[in-house]
Specification:
By secondary structure, the chain is α+β, with helices and mostly antiparallel strands. The protein is built from 29 helices and 32 strands. It has a four-stranded parallel sheet with strand order 2-1-20-21, with helices on both faces.
Length: 987
Amino acid sequence: MSTKENMSSNAPDDATPAHRYTADLAQKIEAQWQGLWEERGTFFADNPAGDLAGPLAEQRPFYLLDMFPYPSGKGLHVGHPLGYIATDVVGRYQRMQGANVLYTLGYDAFGLPAEQYAIATGQHPRVTTMENIATMAAQLRRLGLSHDSRRVFATTDDDYVKWTQWIFLQIFNSWFDPQAPRRDGHGVGAARPISELISSFEDGTRELPEDVLGSQASSLTWAQLSTTQRAEVIDSYRLAFASYAPVNWCPGLGTVLANEEVTAEGRSERGNFPVFKSRLRQWMMRITAYADRLNEDLDTIDWPEKVRSMQRHWIGKSHGATVRFVVPEGNGREERALEVFTTRPDTLFGATFMVVAPEHDLVGGEDAPENELTVPNSWPEGTRDAWTGGYATPREAVAAYRKAAAAKSDDERSGDDATEKTGVFTGIYGRNPVNGTMVPIFIADYVLMGYGTGAIMAVPAHDERDYAFAKKFDLDIVATITPEGDHDLEESAWVGDGVICNSANDHISINGMNKEQAIATMIEWLGKAGLGEETYTYRLRDWLFSRQRYWGEPFPVVYDKDGVVHALPESMLPVTLPDLDNFNPRTFDPDDADTSPEPPLGRATEWTTVDLDLGDGRGVQTYTRDTNTMPNWAGSCWYEIRYADPHNENALVGAENEKYWMGPRTPGASGGVDLYVGGVEHAVLHLLYARFWHKVLFDLGHVSSSEPFHKLFNQGYVQAYAYTDERGQYVPADEVEGDEDQGFTWQGQPVNREYGKMGKSLKNIVTPDDMCDAYGADTFRLYEMSMGPLDVSRPWETRAVVGSQRFLQRLWRNIVDENTGELSIIEDAPDLQTAKLLAHTINDVTEEYDNMRVNTAIAKMIAFNNHLTSLDKVPRQAAEELVLMLAPIAPHICEELWKRMGHQESLARASFPTVTDPKLLEADAVTCIVQVKGKVKAKLEVSPSVSAEELEELALQAPVIVKILDGKPPRRVIVKPPSLVNVVPAE
């Protein structure tokens, strides 16, 4: 039977009893209860203060959160609601346990898809977005999710945009003070208002920075600086700042892309256009200032270890030394120090060459036309043939190599699969500071400017990548660690530990030391000699925060005629988007790397050029708005805060409401949402960005929690089978017939089955609406929750859904007469067997719900319901408590049965069943082992609650024990009720 036939066969026929639980009846019940819930505000969660205040705030708070969904125009398939149904089960269960549950769902509505659709059709992105939200909301409502509808919003709402822009300004007007005490008492290093930094410059307690003002900084005072100079100094400290930064420029799309939007092949995810490295003035977030806290505070939250490991890897904290190699003057180049970071300063004596990134300023990274002249125009003496790449001069070689590297993504350059090593000698040497050897400096694309200093020292004897590079380019290999056994350095690098060798000069020797001793000794010596210092570095880079798009939050800043950035006052927020007829950024020849972005907002000249009063009066100065917009990460960085107080016009969130919902539950804890559920694909970027924003807000006193999400749970995925015919073309999965034993066919022809994603192109999409039409929402919910553990991916099988429907039909028949519609339960108390099974079911289901093992909770309830089916009549107590247990999973049918059993109030906040008589949980009997001198001599069947005295008496009365003792009292009896008695006879 095909899936379609299976689904359609669920429809009632003339022989179906009038009151059977069918899909039609299920849908009527579901629509009725969804309307009642909405009308009564059943799932409203009260705040302690403000417009949503109410008596429920006296109860224990439980904040339950789904990851922010993007409202796609494609709608939902059955895989999407898995996490939503799971959180709804948790929320309903927590309400029945007496909690005030905050549970709602808004929409992360800015993003490229709506803008791309606008470009293709001319329809405004807002129209498309609102249509998509309406579609998704209708699909989710049909599932009976117990959201607080008063707290729903979209990131595109003007009120929400206002507070997103407000947070940006808090970050813009802050700096990271490494000496500031943290509010949580865990050391120092926190965001402080930029006004405090200015005051420290004004009163001279902080020196002006040389890296901004040059060598003259020490002779200047704050009062002597021009307005532009002051702005440059302050901007160098701000947590949000505009800077020229390396970016992924995609001429074919006309926009800059984030790293996650670039494929490993160096092309755009959308459109598959070439992506080039370029330097553009962009907004950045100084997330690197928080690297240590983001890393260390992972220990304060309850997240899967896999996710914490992924975050730690992304942050990439490394300990080592910064070492200075001197590059002599030459070719118009002054002598300079070339700094490298290394985690293995103990191997410095084996550094036989250096490598710089193609973007490094030594070879023209900052200003190519001028700085490339510092690269020699002829190969120096000693240049080996393998170093030149076949070019006549270093200048030609370097220019060609830099151009080729610009077309590659960072992942493509540095990935483990990038086994083919490329590079070329720059014609420049550096002096190894520990032995004075002049080592050649190469340029190679596997070195990245964003990690460390953009330059490395290479020790080919003890690093596989350096070894491969050295072998290819005929470079020296010098061992500084004694290999074990008969390892041959002619064959491969020795990357293990060992005793240090060949590592001494007139001032230091680390020969004979182990790795840890040698590293510590070398770091100390480098510092004393002025050749380097101990350093911690990070893989994490500052967050590129600009997008050359229309559909995003405008930046709440303007620029004056000198290019100085001015933050807009809160009274001017929100800055909303102007209406446009053309949403296209200007696009270019996809292969033309020598172009730069022209965002669509640049066309709105009346919007971009404004006359504002920023303290000097109107008409004094004309300002220019930023034509970039924020990335869609911005809105999803803080939505959990706004859910707590969604209508507050005067603050991001009221302090009392934030503390109630997100404050630490115990002293010293970090606080945050009680349970956050979403896919592991968001393990790094979204979670890292949200943690960063939250920590800034915490430092500035706007929130009481130092982490946004206390407990994280990653649900698995619903996957599906797809089928291809002999041509390799996909055929409709719901029309395929057969099974594993007989094979699969479509329209009589054999097809191949494959397992993976669910998608329109694979012709295996099944929607929640399909399931609700065919079986009802409760059956769909029950099936999704019973498919397996929530954190494991599972295959969708429509033909298996009917099993869940049959369980609900049996439950219905146990309580309602299918022919008359009358109750069929009895008022008699359950018999002992039923009472004991009910007690065990309550106990087990409670434990499974507590640990989010919903599938096993369902199995326990199915087993109990099967027992009830074997009875002539079902006792009311058993029926009611089973309905209450099942209500979090199948709420509509349970509400209906609860009402039919005579209850006027919704069961949504009814108390979850508990076992009132612990004796019902005892086993009927347990086996007690009786030992003599450690050997089993007898077995007794006893009550689980037997006392020690009673058990000792029973053991001593056992015939075999009486015979062994032979009338003599035992020397000792050791009793461990109810399972063990050990008798020690008298000597």
